[in-house]
Amino acid sequence: MRDEISAYKRERILEEAVKLFYERGFSGTTLDDIAGKLGVTKPFIYTHFRSKVELLEAVCRPTIEMSLNAIAQAAQHEGTAADRLHRGVVDFTKVVLQRQGNIAVYFREEKHLSEAGLAEINALRKRFDRVLSDLLQEGVNNGEFQIEDIRVAALAIGGMVSWAYTWYQPEGRLSFDDISARLAHFVLQMVAAQPAAVPAET
Q1: CA angle 176-177-182, nearest 5°?
Q2: Structural domains of the chain, with CATH
Q3: Residue ranges of the HTH tetR-type domain (predicted)?
Q4: pTM of the model
């Protein structure tokens, strides 16, 4: 029970930090600001995070980890390369849309991360690109995809989906699931997936 309460308190700190970092920027937000929103004192935050930079890293890193997991789990699933790519992009897109504030803070405030924190996140991003590249290469090898440059294709896919945080509107014309499915379909078009290999949209 104690661990659950501690995890809940930590999550509440992160929730308020994301909101304030998003609205005011990292430099424009103090730990006192975050504590005030929570109705606590600054020492309460220090029991969970040693500094504002460590808090920023805790806001940014999980989104990269979740994105990597989405692609890695899809790549390991059964099915054709196209099936797995479609699934991976759908799940990756959902991570980006669900954590829109977190990813916005990451792209805006990356310069404030510690050297070690940035290195850790960059390593996760490289693993993401490698897993996605391997899946694309598999599709090329078995004749499902036609891609001239695997590396560029992986970067383009990652960039296209990640950038959805800038235009996604929860109350917009397309639903959460619609956007995820359409981006996955666009990705299959990008890699020239053969018609028989393209999963039907639902």
Answers
A1: 105
A2: 1-49 (1.10.10.60), 58-196 (1.10.357.10)
A3: 7-67
A4: 0.89
